[in-house]
Design brief:
single chain, 6-stranded mixed beta sheet
């Protein structure tokens, strides 16, 4: 079962609350607490119900004050957040205050307040302020957002505007504008942050790599990660006061929603997978947590909450290669572009979740992304995106120099290049000095002096950045912004609650790829000798953008030793030098072989260096043409695995990897294979829990696991997936298909029902199915809804498309009806002639199952245009 969390933000930092704990048979209960008031940051909240049984469906009534405190002038602070027990629905009751309390996750009711924000609670009252209290109209928090932005732009000088069109924005003291930065990485925990002209890795809660997080197939797990990143970035943001030693930003460069259409891409570890629907839903979960569990969008109406932290969606657009990334052209036709590559950006922005967007290094069908007209035509005009758009680091140099797109050869000056970036609607993110050329900010300043860029151009590009700062409350009175009550002295990453978050999420990401003859779980009793073998057996390596965990990350070896205790011998061999691995395996009752690539090719963590020749082609990462050419295990790891299996038939392979591996030999031979991604602080504990049966795995693959790179029919620079890549179009037999993952229990599917016989572009149908845990263990099932187009003969349509999923936890014998809403628009294709999405009349096949290849039930649906 999943741990029960009754507190969402800064739990256990200030004795905010306690959480119900799952037990075995009882029902948790307890009285809800009440929110604190006054000035204690994030309040002295009420406690949740405590576990009075031995669990089963522990849910407990949630405390109503997880966000008490934060009072304004001694008045009651933000209403407590009633969070119902996340088991079978506790009854959270939200409080009242400056901001209405949220309804409980279970059946909580929302509170009333000046501005209700959750669970539909509260009736928004007009924002009140005294304009005479403010020197300038932009400082008045009750004025409409656009009026504030317009006023501030009118007050800034050209030089000040130029300085703000950059990732590190200096203070404008005469207007009371503080220093600000938009540079912090946070793909799976707060990571790289700015320090002067360099970077630092901060201590923060670290989850598995983004590729692994997505394997949870669980937007709620993603919300926990996003919430953790938001809280911890706010703590650091409050901590820094000296710009020379600053800063962790509250604008997080995450999530990466580029689609992982090719496992050879060096940055696959940062991707959520190959399917646009899955990537969109997981990204929305992460962003819901990052924002503080809320959507913005109504700030100009004076009743929307502030963002806890903001996102930078990466990278717009069609970026899947490190090879020649500074000059390559992702040439995509209109169907690929609109049906596939644009989809996650459009869906996330349409949902109001995107705060800023980073463009990519490559060309998009001829136009370098940093000057692409699609920024204005698609993002801003069609999708109505009004946030910040930035280039990637050093992109201006990549546009200009002969090592990149070489606009220098077209007669452009560095100043003209800077001007054209800003005229496209973007600001500059990360700069440099090239030989004899000014740095990026100075180039833009000179461009303005040379009239290569106008005031209107500067204002247009700067508006999005200023809107973002207002939405974060960065320019508002501190007492009005709940998250600014943090002092910077807090250490959430050091608490037991945040350690539990790391473990909870890590366990949800584990994928059981193979389990012949119920080899797993291993029995804890009766074991006297276990061998842990392999180069990753006693290593958790930080990847490129990770931060520092608050304690030594738990390796597989450490987790297994802790699980088995002192009475069991756990031998370790990192390699097979002098037959060390073979000897350890032969003497053991089971061999756990932990294999996988080094996340940064064996280099020092902060060194921009190419992958060494010894691993070139088998390991990947960002930069330096570091795509993989081989997707299999490195030859020395493969040889060691074969040697171990030859002497120990009970060999379990653990793949510790940030991308799919070609492991056909392992799948054909060893009895069990498990996957988890690297870089999380509790990976070893999560693995031990799964291997020895204390947690039933429920993760799923997010990409097609090909047998070999020879199965991929295109080069890494060919972006036409219709040629046979991704599960949409691949015609071969993968080792592990998209959506695949096994369990220690079994699930049956029955009673597929569709609410109507037909659907059109303007209507929807509900698709429901009964799922029953037919085994003897509690477990998680990921129910997946696909559509297929068997009648489509003239137009190449995807073989399958994911159109819904839900991860559910079921006790043995328990049944749950899962219902998906399927809009007719989800069945459309891009009509290149009409330049619009269209429907084809005919029959669409509805498929429901446990993976893209494990379809349990099918039905038909008539489609009318």
């Amino acid at each position: 079962m999943k741990p029960i969390y009754a507190c969402v933000i800064l739990v256990s930092l200030f004795t905010a609350c306690t959480s119900s704990k799952p037990g075995m048979t009882g029902t948790a209960s307890g009285a809800a607490g009440s929110g604190g008031s006054g000035v204690i940051p994030f309040g002295s909240a009420g406690t949740t119900g405590v576990d009075t049984g031995t669990a089963g469906s522990a849910s407990g009534a949630a405390g109503t004050g997880a966000l008490g405190g934060m009072g304004v002038a001694g008045t009651t602070g933000e209403g407590g957040m009633g969070v119902g027990g996340i088991g079978t629905g506790g009854t959270g009751v939200a409080g009242a205050g400056v901001v209405g309390g949220r309804g409980g996750t279970g059946t909580g009711t929302a509170g009333s307040a000046a501005a209700g924000r959750g669970g539909g609670g509260g009736t928004a009252a007009p924002c009140t302020s005294n304009p005479a209290d403010y020197q300038y109209p932009f400082q008045d928090p009750c004025k409409p957002l656009e009026d504030r932005v317009t006023n501030l732009l009118s007050l800034l000088t050209t030089d000040e505007k130029v300085s703000l069109l950059y990732e590190n924005q200096p203070a404008v003291s005469r207007l009371g504008i503080p220093f600000f930065t938009t540079f912090t990485e946070g793909l799976h925990g707060v990571g790289w942050s700015a320090v002067g002209s360099g970077v630092q890795r901060v201590v923060a809660t670290q989850f598995p790599q983004a590729f692994g997080l997505a394997e949870s197939w669980d937007p709620e797990a993603m919300r926990i990660v996003g919430d953790t990143v938001g809280v911890e970035s706010r703590v650091y943001y409050a901590r820094w006061s000296d710009p020379n030693q600053c800063c962790t930003s509250i604008v997080i460069r995450a999530p990466l929603i580029d689609l992982g259409r090719d496992p050879r891409w060096g940055r696959t570890e940062e991707s959520y997978g190959e399917d646009p629907y899955l990537v969109s839903e997981l990204a929305k979960g992460f962003l819901s947590g990052l924002h503080g569990g809320q959507q913005y969008g109504g700030l100009q109406n004076n009743n929307a909450p502030y963002l806890m932290a903001a996102s930078t969606l990466k990278h717009f657009l069609a970026y899947n290669n490190e090879t020649n990334r500074n000059k390559s052209d992702s040439a995509v036709d209109e169907r690929n572009l609109n049906e596939y590559y644009l989809s996650p950006f459009q869906e996330v922005i349409k949902a109001g979740k995107g705060d800023s967007v980073m463009t990519s290094y490559n060309k998009i069908s001829g136009d370098p992304a940093m000057i692409s007209p699609k920024v204005k035509s698609l993002l801003m005009s069609q999708w109505k995106f009004d946030g910040m758009v930035v280039t990637d680091a050093f992109a201006l140099n990549g546009l200009y120099a002969n090592t990149g797109h070489n606009y220098m050869a077209m007669g452009w000056s560095y100043e003209k290049a800077a001007a054209e970036v800003v005229k496209s609607g973007q600001s500059l993110c990360g700069g440099n000095v090239t030989s004899g050329k000014p740095d990026d900010v100075e180039a833009l300043r000179r461009a303005a002096q040379m009239s290569l860029v106008t005031t209107a151009d500067l204002d247009f590009a700067l508006r999005g950045s200023l809107r973002l700062r207002f939405r974060l409350g960065d320019l508002d009175p501190k007492m009005r912004v709940p998250y600014r009550s943090l002092t910077g002295t807090e250490n959430p990453w050091a608490t037991a609650e945040y350690k539990a978050r790391a473990l909870d999420v890590s366990r949800r990401t584990v994928v059981l790829l193979k389990n012949a003859n119920n080899t797993l779980p291993l029995a804890k009793t009766g074991m006297t000798n276990v061998a842990v073998i392999g180069p990753r057996g006693d290593q958790i390596i930080r990847d490129w953008y990770a931060g520092k965990p608050p304690y030594t990350a738990v390796t597989a070896l450490a987790g297994i030793k802790a699980k088995l205790g002192a009475g069991v011998t756990v031998a370790f061999a990192a390699n097979n030098t002098n037959s060390a691995a073979v000897n350890a395996a032969r003497a053991a009752q089971a061999a756990i072989v932990v294999l996988g690539p080094h996340p940064i090719c064996g280099n020092a963590e902060d060194q921009w260096a190419a992958c060494p020749a010894s691993t070139m082609g088998y390991e990947g990462r960002e930069g330096f043409d570091a795509d993989r050419t081989h997707i299999g295990l490195m030859p020395d790891q493969q040889a060691m695995l074969e040697a171990v299996f030859a002497v120990q038939p009970k060999t379990i392979v653990v793949l510790l990897s940030g991308y799919p591996q070609g492991v056909k030999w392992a799948n054909d031979n060893v009895p069990a294979i498990v996957h988890i991604a690297n870089s999380g602080q509790e990976i070893g504990t999560a693995l031990a829990d799964v291997l020895f049966g204390d947690y039933n795995p429920g993760g799923r693959t997010t990409m097609t696991w090909y047998a070999s790179e020879t199965d991929i029919p295109t080069t890494i620079l060919d972006y036409d997936i219709k040629k046979g890549t991704t599960y949409w179009y691949f015609k071969g037999t993968p080792v592990f298909p998209f959506g695949h993952g096994l369990s220690y229990t079994t699930f049956t599917y029955a009673n597929l029902a569709v609410s109507g016989a037909g659907v059109s572009g303007a209507t929807s149908v509900n698709v429901s199915v009964d799922v029953t845990n037919s085994g003897t263990r509690a477990g998680d099932e990921v129910v997946q809804l696909y559509v297929a187009y068997p009648q489509s003969t003239t137009l190449p349509r995807p073989r399958q498309q994911l159109r819904g999923f839900k991860r559910v936890t079921l006790q043995p014998g328990a049944k749950q009806t899962i219902t998906f809403t399927l809009p007719g628009s989800a069945l459309s294709y891009w009509d290149a002639t009409a330049k619009a999405f269209a429907l084809t009349a005919g029959t669409v096949q509805i498929q429901v199952g446990s993976s893209s290849k494990d379809i349990r039930l099918m039905g038909n649906l008539n489609v009318t245009p």
